[in-house]
């Protein structure tokens, strides 16, 4: 398949045409300066180890990149501080910052195809998905621009002869640490509100998918974002990420990733008494009642777990089916899962694309083997697809397991792959007890035609997001958060921008009354 796209300097390139992927991807990114990271407004070769970027559809190395080092973190943070304070970003009027964000959103839109191809090459995801992610990232920049411009501080009810104001200010330099599964969307979700709020951002993309964040930095630069406000430092979490979290001048960390990493970061944040937002893992229940619209439920359950090859924090990986329809529903679900089309993300017919890397695929396969050894029945999948076209990539068949109860490891641990477990339930009480028996609380899907029942279950299941007769639909204007080990704090929504600001209260005297030691009223309210 050929994709003609315009490179950074306007020259058209074709992937699969006269250029190899190896030539094309860095060229798509930034013309002739490919092995560069973005440190404090300067593009330069990183001082860290070489990252080899592998296309998970083919197993080919398509680009190499020198990672950042902890020393780069300090340079980036200092540049960020200068850009915020001396450079005046923090003091700029919200509508002025919004204008830059609108331009970034427009450029992301204009370069959506380039971003999508780059992300599909780096992560394996289908082009239809990466196109949607690019469009949503553009929307995120515009939404946060609008939010910044229209946010209001409050004049609070006075308790004395003074004017009381609740105002908000930028924090300074924010660290954004992201996973590999949906780079452009998770980047935008952090970078847009943090910049809109008047901060600088040091982004630490993952080793498995660093390129799209670097391309986003190019677009931010082109949009006129002042130098130093965004740095992009790809590299290992244990060195570059750790240095970012522990840096004394980093005022906040916004993290998306696994729960184990998130817990370690929360400890580091506690040492600094630093706010941290954590968007972590999940093991989300998808619930099918006996009165559900069967066609919709089948399509929703399949999409909920197998889109993105299950590499989604909100994947509906525990499928609870009411016992009286369990047999028939599961039989049809398995039959449809078997006919899902597995293939490269560049093929428009593909539904289940490769996983991000062979190492990750092998980890998922090992979890399925452990479940099998613990007594699970593999109803479909549970193996690498057969065929020459799958040999070099990171493919895995859509897999459905049964025959274990909800306390089994495979029901309690996040797999982050195309693996669902089907579980029967008897009634609402049984269902709610099973669904809530999990350390996670990220998402939940409910399929029923009884809206009162849907409401009861939506209220009873512990989850940050509940979908009723739909699944995996998102809107930047609706807050997103996880409960318990799925996270801490909220992203998205109008107030998402506030989590990148410090709140400051201001009292302005209006009457000139003496304070208590100067003969005033000593019974006045409010000594802390
Ligand atoms: P991960 O936790 O291994 O890595 C996430 C990021 O943290 C990477 O950039 C990594 O380099 C960095 N990191 C790792 N150790 C670090 C350390 N000690 N200090 C600082 N940074 C460190 O997760 P992953 O495998 O990249 O992503 C998959 C996980 O992300 C899954 O658990 C998934 O559920 C979760 N996720 C959650 C959401 C959400 O919104 N809740 C969204 C997407 C993915």
TrEMBL record:
This is NAD-dependent aldehyde dehydrogenase. It comes from Rhodococcus rhodnii LMG 5362. The active site is at 279. It holds the Pfam family Aldedh. InterPro entries: Ald_DH/histidinol_DH, Ald_DH_C, Ald_DH_CS_CYS, Ald_DH_CS_GLU, Ald_DH_N, Aldehyde_DH_dom. Belongs to the aldehyde dehydrogenase family. Residues 43-506 form the Aldehyde dehydrogenase domain. Keywords: Oxidoreductase. One of its GO terms (molecular function) is oxidoreductase activity, acting on the aldehyde or oxo group of donors, NAD or NADP as acceptor.
């Amino acid at each position: 398949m050929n994709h003609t796209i315009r490179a950074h300097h306007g020259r058209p390139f074709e992937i699969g045409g006269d250029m190899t992927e190896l030539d094309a991807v860095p060229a798509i990114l930034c013309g002739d300066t490919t092995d560069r990271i973005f440190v404090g407004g300067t593009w330069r070769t990183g001082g860290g180890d070489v990252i080899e970027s592998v296309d998970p559809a083919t197993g080919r190395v398509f680009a190499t990149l020198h990672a950042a080092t902890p020393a780069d973190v300090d340079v980036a943070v200092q540049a960020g501080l200068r850009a915020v304070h001396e450079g005046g970003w923090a003091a700029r009027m919200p509508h002025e910052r919004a204008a830059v964000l609108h331009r970034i959103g427009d450029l992301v839109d204009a370069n959506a195809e380039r971003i999508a191809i780059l992300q599909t090459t780096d992560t394996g995801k289908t082009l239809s998905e990466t196109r949607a992610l690019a469009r949503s990232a553009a929307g995120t920049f515009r939404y946060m621009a609008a939010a910044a411009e229209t946010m209001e501080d409050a004049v609070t009810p006075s308790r004395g002869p003074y004017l009381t104001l609740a105002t908000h200010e930028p924090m300074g330099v924010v660290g954004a640490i992201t996973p590999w599964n949906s780079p452009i969307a998770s980047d935008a979700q952090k970078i847009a509100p943090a910049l809109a709020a008047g901060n600088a951002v040091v982004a630490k993309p993952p080793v498995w998918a660093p390129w799209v964040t670097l391309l986003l930095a190019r677009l931010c630069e082109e949009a006129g974002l002042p130098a130093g406000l965004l740095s992009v430092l790809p590299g290992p979490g244990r060195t570059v990420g750790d240095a970012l979290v522990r840096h004394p001048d980093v005022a906040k960390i916004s993290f998306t990733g696994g729960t184990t990493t998130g817990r370690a970061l929360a400890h580091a944040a506690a040492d600094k008494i630093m706010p941290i937002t954590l968007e972590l893992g999940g093991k989300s229940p998808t619930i099918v009642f006996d009165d559900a619209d069967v066609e919709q439920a089948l399509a929703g359950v399949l999409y909920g777990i197998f889109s993105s090859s299950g590499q989604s924090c909100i994947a509906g990986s525990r499928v609870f089916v009411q016992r009286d329809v369990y047999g028939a529903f599961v039989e049809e679900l398995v039959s449809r899962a078997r006919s899902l089309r597995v293939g490269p993300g560049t093929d428009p017919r593909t539904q289940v694309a490769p996983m991000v890397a062979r190492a990750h695929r092998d980890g998922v396969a090992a979890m399925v083997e452990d479940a099998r050894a613990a007594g699970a029945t593999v109803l479909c999948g549970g193996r690498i697809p057969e065929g020459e076209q799958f040999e070099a990539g990171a493919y895995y068949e859509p897999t459905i397991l049964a025959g274990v109860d909800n306390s089994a490891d495979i029901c309690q641990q996040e797999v982050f792959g195309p693996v669902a477990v089907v579980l029967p339930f008897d009634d609402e009480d049984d269902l709610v007890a099973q669904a809530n028996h999990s350390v996670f609380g990220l998402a939940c899907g409910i399929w029923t035609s009884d809206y009162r029942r849907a409401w009861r279950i939506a209220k009873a299941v512990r989850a940050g997001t509940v979908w009723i007769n739909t699944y995996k639909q998102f809107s930047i204007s609706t807050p997103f958060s996880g409960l318990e080990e799925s996270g801490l704090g909220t992203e998205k929504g109008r107030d998402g921008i506030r989590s990148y600001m410090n709140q400051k209260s201001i009292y302005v005297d209006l009457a000139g009354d003496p304070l208590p030691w100067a003969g005033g009223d000593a019974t006045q309210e409010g000594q802390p």
